Amino acid sequence: MEKKKIYSYTADSDGIWVVDALTKVSDFSKSAIKRLMSSGAVWFHSGKKQRTVRKASATLKKDEKVKLYFDPNIKEFDMSNVRCVHDTHNWGIWYKPAGLLSQGTKYGDEFTILRHIEKSLKKEIFLIHRLDRETAGLMIFAYNKKAARLLSEQIKERRVEKFYQAVVHGELKESGEIKSKIEGKDAHSIYKVKSYNDKNTQVEVQIITGRKHQIRVHMAELGHPVIGDRIHGKRDGRSLKLVAHKLHMLDPYRPQNKLEFHLGEKEKLF
Q1: Looking at CB atoms within 10 Å, which of 77, 105, 199, 201 has the fewest?
Q2: Mapping DSSP to helix (H, G, I), strand (E, B) and coil, where does residue 207 land?
Q3: Crossing angle for the helix pair 18-25 and 30-38, nearest 10 degrees?
Q4: Which of 38-59 are b and which e, b meaning 16 or more Cβ less than 10 Å from the residue's Cβ?
Q5: How many other C-beta atoms can be found within 10 angstroms of the C-beta atom of residue 112?
Q6: Is 80 helix (H, G, I), strand (E, B) or coil?
Q7: What is the pLDDT along the chain (270 residues), one digit of tens a residue?
Q8: Is 109 a catalytic residue?
Q9: What domains can you pick out in the chain, each with its CATH number?
Q10: Whole-angstrom distance, CA of residue 117 vs CA of residue 139
Q11: Rounded distance, CA 162 to CA 261, Å?
């Protein structure tokens, strides 16, 4: 894996073009820098404030700093499998394929579901919750600040019920629940065994809390890591068998209406 690089330039006068500035401190051509700007890898830094700069026409003021974050390991992603499951004027449910990031980093956001939706709808989109890169499934997005606030409140108050399908190593014979600490915080999952044999078990998991890698950690703690989990399980070359297949929630604008969303049969594990 090649090393990431950061290129920095501080303007000594007003009106310096960002593209020109970054060509002075990097080995990139102007056209390459413009592509990197478009992909979200160029940032203005002013004190503690940071923001992306995408327009090739951007200029710097005196003492303003711009940084280019370059990751040579970022690969293109086929976005054709990203789809909208349910759409309203204010929010929507989208399907994220495995291998796609939920949101970007300083090194870019071109190949993320958040940026894909923003480009598709041509407006700012708000991420309500995340899925791991390797996990496929349903995600909630808000299309304005009010919807983001209402949906985030539901998440915080645990009124959004999230269900996952997982295939784990070994024979997990009984359904149950697990409560433990993940990075010092309470984590709670409920799991139901759907079918099993001597090699693996199909499980549906509802997460009550939303900790990082929660299902993967909990299944590993039970002695049955999720197949394809290279961090908490075995490195056997298989893809992660974990899909966010179902959501129960309230309509944020009509909370008396309960809503359910499901993945299509082809996108489920079982």
Answers
A1: 199
A2: strand
A3: 110
A4: ebbbbbbeeeeeeeebeebeeb
A5: 22
A6: helix
A7: 899 999 999 999 999 999 999 999 999 999 999 999 999 999 999 888 999 999 999 999 999 999 999 999 999 999 999 999 999 999 999 999 999 999 999 999 999 999 999 999 999 999 999 999 999 999 999 999 999 999 999 999 999 999 999 999 999 999 999 999 999 999 999 999 999 988 999 999 999 999 999 999 999 999 999 999 999 998 888 999 999 999 999 999 999 999 999 999 999 999
A8: no
A9: 5-70 (3.10.290.10), 79-157 (3.30.2350.10), 161-244 (3.30.2350.10)
A10: 12
A11: 10
Q: What residue ranges in the chain does DSSP mark as E strands?
A: 5-10, 16-17, 42-46, 49-52, 59-60, 65-70, 83-87, 91-96, 126-127, 136-142, 161-169, 176-182, 185-196, 200-207, 242-250, 258-262
Nearest 5°: the CA angle 267, 229, 175 is 75
What whole-number distance in Å separates Cα of residue 138 and Cα of residue 189? 18
CA distances in angstroms from 80 to 95, 102, 104, 106, 229, listed in the order given? 11, 15, 19, 24, 25
Residues 202/245, Cβ–Cβ less than 8 Å: no
Q: Which amino acid belongs to residue 109?
A: D
The C-alpha atoms of residue 107 and residue 258 are separated, in whole angstroms, by 39
Residue type, 64: E
C-alpha 173/C-alpha 138 separation (Å) is 28
CA 167, CA 240: separation in Å to the nearest integer? 9
Residue 169, token pair as written in the block: 């190593």
The residue annotated as part of the active site, out of 78, 132, 186, 251, is 132
Please give the span between the terminal C-alpha atoms of the chain, in angstroms, as a whole number.
35
Q: What is the pTM for the complete model shown?
A: 0.93
